[in-house]
Each structure stands twice: as structure tokens, then as C-alpha cells.
Amino acid sequence: MAHKKSIRFFNDREVRAIWDDEHSKWWFSAIDIVRAINEEDDYVRAGNYWRWLKRKLSGDGIQLVSVTHDFKFEAPDGKLRASDALDTACVQTLAKHYPANRANAFLDWFTYSDNTIDGQSKKKAYDLFESGLLESLEPGTVKCLQQIHAYIFGGLYDFAGQIRTKSISKGGFTFANALHFPTILPTIEKMPETTFDEIADKYVEMNVAHPFMEGNGRSTRIWLDLMLKHSLKKCVDWSQIDKNSYLDAMRRSVVDSVPIKALLGGALTEKIDDRETFMKGIDYSYYYEES
Asked: Taken in order 149, 150, 154, 160, is the CA torsion positive or negative?
């Protein structure tokens, strides 16, 4: 049976989760939680620590009552294996009793991340897959990008879906002057999108324009995938693109698009209708925006 899957990130490490339809809740990989809190790269060491910690807590009279083996997570070798998973209440109990109070920052992140604007908009971005909206949009158009932005951020920002009227900058880089949008955006919209290079160039130009006050990257990456799907029957498997490499390539794309084209081209997949690929794409897209 297929389950909804999610990847969240703490300390730049994945915390994978699987949705339980029967009980309407998420289950989180226990080993991933240990890796995140301990800043541990080795899965074997994290697994050993988890088994030791589980015994220690039980000996201290702290019962992690909601531990299950019913779900499988993908192991580093690519195979699916049953692994301990914790529900939300169990994760919070574990974090509160973690040795040396090392999980305080993790607990803050875990408790509040879903209630932020980013957390709420991410849920709306997930819903795009089942909403049917993506199939009704005209790829490559400004209106398409606005509709994606409006769906994700509607009710969260009063400017959702609206082209900005103010100038903005980020990291010392000033994006296109809003006064020039009546000329800039139609020009970008008319750019061809029949080849990979053309689509990547169009994506880069829209990123430089940055037409919204906030949420440009998350909306534009979906916009990019729609163009690729429509013209090439492919999309980007964002989980194959390292965060720092992507951010560096996007910064350089203002003067040199070769690095970002290499990253995107190396991560293309034909799984254009695959739910898990889309969901992972959303997870990584939001991960890129985390400071």
C-alpha cells in the first residue's frame, strides 16, 4: 500500500515521515531524529544510539508508547526496510528526555515548524498534486506563475499571486525594478520553451525578475517543472540536487547559467506523474529556502 511521504530537515539532515491513513497522523523515522539531534552522519552509529537510548529511557521508567515497525523507510542502499517510527506525541516525549538536554532546539523546531507561514504554505503546496490546478494552467505564462503563488500563499500573505510594486533585494543582490515589470514580464513570457536550454534560460530570467514580495523560489521551481513536463515530458528530481550547490549555481546564473543547467539537467526524471517525486520536490524546495 502506498503512503504519503514527507521529508523535513533539521541541522541539514533529513527527518523522514510517513502518513498513516488509518489513524490520520504522521510517523517519523526514529533513526533520522537521532541523526538530526546528534548531528550524526553515520546511519549505523545513529541506529546503535537509538537502540541504546530506547533501552535507557525504558529503564528510567519513560515509556515511548507509540513506537511502530509497520512502515518502511528507504535505507542508504536504496532498499526499503522496516524501522522504528514515532508519532508526534512520542517524538516530543523523546526530545524532552533526551540526554544532556541536547534536543531542546529540535523540539522547538518540531513543535512550531508546522504552524509558521512556511509550514502552512508547504501543506498547501502538497495539496497542489491532488487539486487538479496544475493540469489546468498554461505552462510558461506569467498568469500560471501567479496562480501557483496564489494557491500556495493564499490566506497567508495579502499579496498572494500579486506582482510586486516595490523593489526588493536579497543577499546584497537587487532584483528587477518593479517599475519595469510591464516590459520585463511579457518579454520573459514570450521566451521559447521547446528545449531544455530554452526552458532553463526562461527559469533563470524569471528568478532574476523575482516578481513577488516573497515566495518566488518555491513558486518558480513548480513553474519550471510544468514547462519541462509540458515540452519534454520530464521534470526535476529536486532530491538529487544539493542545497548549497543549487544556491551557489542560482547566484552565479545572473552572469553564467552553465552551472544551474548542469545541476538541473543531471537531475531530470521521466516520473512526471509520480506523487512521491512531486512531494519530495516540495520538501527540497522549502529546504532550499531555510536559512
From this structure: positive
Using alpha carbons only, how large is the chain's radius of gyration in Å? 21
Q: Taking Cα atoms as reference points, which of 71, 56, 92, 59 lies closest to residue 18? A: 71
The CA-based angle 6-11-13, given to 5 degrees, is 45
Angle at 158 between CA 157 and CA 162, to 5 degrees: 100
- Average pLDDT per 10 consecutive residues for the chain, totaling 291 residues: 75 88 88 95 94 94 86 81 91 94 90 77 90 95 98 95 92 89 98 98 97 97 98 97 96 96 98 92 93 74
For residues 193 and 199, is the Cβ–Cβ distance under 8 A?
yes
At residue 250, φ and ψ (nearest 5 deg) are -70, -35
Identify whether the C-beta of residue 26 lies closer than 8 Å to the C-beta of residue 88.
yes
Q: Is the pTM of this model over 0.85?
A: no
Give me 135's grid cell.
493540469
Amino acid at 142: V
C-alpha span between 254 and 69 (Å, rounded): 48
- Tell me the DSSP string of 149-216: HHHHHTTT-TTTTPPP-S--EETTEE---GGGHHHHHHHHHTS--SSHHHHHHHHHHHHHH--SSS-H
Answer yes or no: are the C-beta atoms of 71 and 18 closer than 8 Å.
yes
How many other C-beta atoms are found inside a 10 Å radius of the C-beta of residue 2?
A: 6
Q: What is the pLDDT of residue 172?
A: 79
Distance of alpha carbon 205 from alpha carbon 81, whole angstroms: 43
Beta carbons within 10 angstroms of residue 20's beta carbon: 17
Output the CATH code of domain 117-289: 1.10.3290.10
Query: Could you tell me the residue ranges of all domains in the chain?
Result: 5-115, 117-289
